[in-house]
Design brief:
Blueprint: E1 13-19, E2 25-30, E3 37-42, E4 49-52, E5 57-64, E6 70-77, E7 84-89, E8 96-97, E9 107-113, E10 119-128, E11 131-138, E12 144-147, E13 154-160, E14 166-174, E15 177-184, E16 193-194, E17 204-209, E18 215-220, E19 228-233, E20 238-243, E21 248-255, E22 258-265, E23 268-275, E24 278-279, E25 289-295, E26 301-307, E27 314-319, E28 324-327, E29 345-350, E30 356-362, E31 370-376, H1 393-399, E32 403-408, H2 417-421, H3 430-442, E33 448-458, H4 460-471, E34 476-482, H5 488-494, H6 500-506, H7 514-519, E35 533-538, H8 546-558, E36 563-568, H9 578-598, H10 620-625
Length: 627
């Protein structure tokens, strides 16, 4: 039987790319060398070249200077998310640091340069750890022009306009409340002005400018529950739709009269394009998920980062002129050259209140019955999609005969704003109810062995995994929590200071909602966890501090529950070191296989308890015991 390492892609990418101004090179961040470094590869094909990297730092963002002879990039140390800014020549050499002052969160604008390359736009919380300021850095004089946010708003720089006059930025309160701000850099006394305030609360995420700086494109849910592509006209101060499908528009780029965008249709990406307002026929692309997209300056081609369940993430070129598609990279592991990978079925199952929950269901080859892993995505405002998940872990488990159900429960993106906001200040309520209904759906499948169930998740998914083990009375035989919160009160209090408004909106204010947050915390119901647990934690995690994992591990070990606890001293929230990632997922695969393959298939099933989300204070096990 093939081992886990046989399923591991040759490299992984950060989910961004940058096309050079002349359209000849693509810049990307890959961990092919063991750490996420800055690389370039010719669009015409050829050998990639490593430009910059560090043994202990991860390259996160990057952009070309207008001249195309240098790149600017951000990097943090051991996953601590304290980003510094560097410049490196296209010819190579040692990077030089652009940033100054203390460690902080410096976030590059998507298009950070003015046309001359003299001014660089980014966001930083160096002045006040709780405030993200907009900064325009004069690279000639070193002068910083700074703009501070209104109370409760986190700024994020987006771009400088093609004429260098405007600084475009977002003002973030939550993932469903994002406004657009413009600053006139020609006015020495200018302050950022919100240009979407009259349109009300919603998502307004700006992107590419018109070439004449007459306005900018953006993604917005202003007209419906789903995100449309739109254009904002500066002179008319008006917004009009470009594409408004019944799914979310996710990526959009423009060049030379061509607009190209992708739509998230039930998890898969579908590309659309138009030239001067008329639909443009596109080459066929493999079914998958497009996470980055960039048009060439003459719009003759686009470069994209595409991922699918059957093939790991790859850089690819979409040739609009010759109507062709080709991969620039080949990351396929050895296993995919000898077996056919399992492609998930996109399903729905019924939940409370007449809702349907979308999910991905992976069924192994063979008649079964198959043990099942419930895999919960992070976020919670994220989406389980048909990609080559967790560096091949899914495909390896499937090869071992383990089925996977990966739901998009309440709080997930991709199914409308209303579905996304269901989880606000209700973690461990309606979402857990949706996961409960997922298990009930599995019980209707004759090939699924629901006497052998495991649950796994990372970040929010780790919280959900712990909640399932503690509060859903099924035949759990194992659980995996990767940097999962166990105490929502301590999590909220330890969150990065710039997240204060976001945390209060999405999770709950720890000062005023402590009782409910504690009632929903897995550590409160830790006595309900009896299944063996595998906990993985990064020591430098700024989002879910190590104390979250420490708490649940201590509680369970005190009761004699089997717990494996692996702490990675050089990682933050997730993995940036390739060796660490492979070690962790190989261990997870072995742990799950050992427990799921040896579980007692004849053990009687627990009876599921209804209405999980209706009682914010009492755990399901408590309700069942008192029934």
């Amino acid at each position: 039987m093939l081992g886990y390492l046989d399923f591991v892609p040759q490299q992984r990418f950060q989910r961004t790319l940058a096309l050079s101004p002349n359209g000849k090179l693509v810049a990307y961040s890959s961990h092919a060398s063991g750490h996420y470094d800055l690389w370039v590869v010719p669009v015409a094909g050829g050998e990639p070249r490593r430009l910059a990297g560090f043994d202990n730092r991860t390259v996160r963002q990057f952009a070309w200077t207008p001249s195309g002879d240098q790149l600017v990039f951000t990097a943090d140390e051991n996953g601590d998310e304290q980003f510094r800014i560097y410049m490196v020549s296209l010819q190579g050499g040692e990077p030089s640091e652009v940033s100054s002052g203390p460690d902080c969160q410096r976030i590059l604008a998507e298009s950070p340069f003015d046309p001359t390359g003299r001014f660089l736009a980014y966001t930083a919380n160096d002045r006040d750890p709780a405030a993200q300021d907009l900064i325009v850095h004069d690279l000639t004089t070193g002068e910083l022009r700074r703009f501070t946010p209104p109370e409760g708003v986190a700024f994020e720089a987006v771009s400088l306009s093609p004429d260098g006059r405007w600084l475009l930025a977002t003002g973030f309160r939550s993932n469903t409340d994002i406004a657009v701000y413009l600053t006139d850099l020609n006015d020495p006394d200018a302050e950022p002005a919100c240009v979407t305030s009259a349109l009300g609360e919603g998502v307004f995420e700006p992107g590419a400018w018109a070439s004449d700086a007459s306005g900018f494109h953006l993604l917005t849910d202003h007209w419906s529950d789903f995100t449309a592509a739109a254009f904002y006209d500066l002179e008319a101060k008006s917004l009009h739709a470009i594409a408004a499908p019944s799914w979310d528009v996710e990526t959009l780029d423009v060049a030379a009269g061509v607009r190209i965008w992708s739509v998230n249709e039930g998890g898969r990406s579908r590309l659309h394009a138009e030239r001067n307002g008329s639909p443009l026929l596109l080459p066929d692309i493999p079914p998958g998920v497009i996470s980055a997209l960039s048009l060439a300056p003459d719009a003759s081609f686009a470069v994209l980062l595409i991922d699918s369940a059957a093939r790991p993430a790859e850089l690819a070129v979409l040739d609009l002129a010759n109507h062709d598609f080709c991969y620039l990279t080949d990351t396929r592991p050895a296993a995919l050259r000898v077996i056919n990978p399992i492609v998930p079925e996109l399903i729905t199952y019924p939940a409370s209140g007449g809702r349907d929950v979308h999910a991905l269901l992976y069924r192994p080859d063979g008649p079964g019955p198959h043990p099942v892993l419930l895999s919960v995505h992070g976020g919670p405002e994220a989406q389980e999609r048909p990609i080559y998940a967790r560096s091949g872990l899914y495909q390896h488990l499937l090869h071992q005969g383990i089925a996977i159900l990966a739901p998009n429960a309440a709080g997930s993106t991709g199914y409308g704003t209303a579905h996304q906001k269901l989880i606000y200040r209700d973690w461990g309520g309606i979402d857990l109810d949706d996961l409960d209904h997922g298990i009930r759906y599995l019980q209707t499948l004759d090939w699924a062995d629901t006497n052998r169930l495991a649950v796994m998740g990372a970040s929010y998914g780790g919280f959900a995994a712990l909640s399932c083990l503690a509060r859903l009375p099924y035949s759990w035989v194992a659980g995996v929590s990767i940097c999962g919160p166990s105490n929502l009160v301590t999590l909220a209090k330890a969150s990065p200071p710039t997240w204060k408004t976001f945390v209060a909106t999405v999770l709950g204010d720890p000062d005023t909602c402590a009782e409910q947050l504690l009632a929903r915390s897995p550590v409160t119901h830790a006595d309900g966890i009896t299944a063996p647990l595998f906990v993985i934690q990064g020591a430098h995690d700024p989002r879910v501090p190590q104390a979250e994992s420490d708490q649940i591990v201590a509680r369970l070990r005190k009761r004699g529950v089997e717990v494996r606890y692996d702490i990675y001293p050089d990682e933050g929230h997730g993995f940036t070191n390739r060796a660490n990632e492979l070690k962790a997922y190989e261990a997870v695969s072995a742990f799950l296989h050992a427990h799921l393959s040896t579980a007692d298939a004849d053990r009687p099933q627990s009876i599921p308890v209804r209405n999980v989300g209706n009682d914010p204070v009492v755990s399901i096990r408590s309700r069942r015991e008192h029934a």
